[in-house]
């Protein structure tokens, strides 16, 4: 049995990493099915570089462990693990995003945004990177408690905070049930100025999960994100008739 992520943290003696306790157990739950895979993990926000070192140990068969940070001092960090690389630049910049994608050299399995924690940067980073996440991939935004603080462009009732944006993605998951004449992009653009080119990206959101200070978004093709047909099993309808003549009841898909 592979060691847990908490085990790696408790026994780590290299570069400093700073994570909240709840993250370790939730990451273990989310990521252990990928632990032996040739994954590409991208972490935005390098700081002292310890988390990249630990991810490199946790994912022993990783194809790439890539960190991106705006601080040029991070370029001084070096690693024995050859799968770990660092890109210096602002991930919200198209030039930096392209440099990151070139370094990843293929689809990304896991994105962890531990960057500036400001709402605008969090939302921009999501739109820059989610489209490059592979189908079945996992996108994680960390430290969303900052979204409740004015100093990070947030507040409990702040309509344009990052947490407000992620809450809207719950409605995106349930898009097929809307009765309003509105696209996904039109709905999101009430908070974030985007155009219809992002419609396909939004349709690939399979699930949105909230944990204290974390939001986890999973990506799958649109065909796996609809409710599908209603499946009725059994014959006896003692209390209420639920079957139509075909044995199925379904609503046309958008």
Automatic annotation (TrEMBL):
Xref: CDD domains: AdoMet_MTases (cd02440)
Gene3D superfamilies per the UniProt record, alphabetical: Vaccinia Virus protein VP39 (3.40.50.150)
GO BP, one annotated term: methylation
InterPro entries: SAM-dependent_MTases_sf (IPR029063)
Keyword Methyltransferase annotated: yes
Example of a GO MF term: methyltransferase activity
Keyword hit for Transferase: yes
SUPFAM superfamilies, alphabetized: S-adenosyl-L-methionine-dependent methyltransferases (SSF53335)
Keywords associated with the record: Methyltransferase, Transferase
Domain of life: Bacteria
Protein name: Class I SAM-dependent methyltransferase
Source organism of this protein record: Pseudomonas coleopterorum
